[in-house]
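Readers of this paper often ask what the protein records in our data store actually look like. Below, we set out a record of this kind in full and without editing:
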Amino acid sequence: MLRRIRWFLFGLTAGIGGSAWLVTKARLARERLTPANAARVAAELLDAGSRRLAR
């Protein structure tokens, strides 16, 4: 019986930890994908591409 309780608690802990990790990753991705950041990254890519073509 204790073995089942232990495995249940391990699974519960892993589930809570995985959910917390996923929520954190989703929040960081949402912050990274704001319109202002997307515009900044696009401008940097266009600038880098134009410098490569100028060579």
Summary: Residues 21-55 form one domain. The radius of gyration is 22 Å. The helical segments are 2-32, 35-54.
